[in-house]
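Mods, move this if it's the wrong board.
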Amino acid sequence: MELNLDNNFFADIDGEEFQKGSVSATVTVKKNRDVFDFTFSLSGVVVVPCDRCLDDLEIEVTAENSLKVRLGENYADDGDVVIVPESDGDINIAWYLYEFIALALPMKRVHAPGKCNHEMTGKLKKHACKDENINDVDDADNDSAYIDPRWESLKNIQIEEDN
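Not the wrong board. Structure tokens:
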């Protein structure tokens, strides 16, 4: 089954991470005895707020996920297998699609260097830490280059090993 997840889908889901995008989803279902194996192939673009300037940022997503569904007495979701009541006989996969897309997003969501909203980065610079190790709020390498002085002193600690 081919699905096109557009802005209307994301608005209807009303998730917290993002509400805009265009993602193509291919869903296949295979029945193995009493378990239905769902396979999801996702690719497209979602719009999230930039962690630095809060402007919209388009992020490409691709993901391959699976879900096992079994019929039973009561609804249950233990992480490995979703149990759907036999009386219902159907499952709404919309939330699972949304979660699979959210899991495919990177932890750090920022524009490329120099692409952030200059007005916002100016305000960030005004209120940023006044440390000589930090040069520019819009520099993507700052997060990895800066070491808090409290942690820097821990580098001098040596651990003796028992032989």
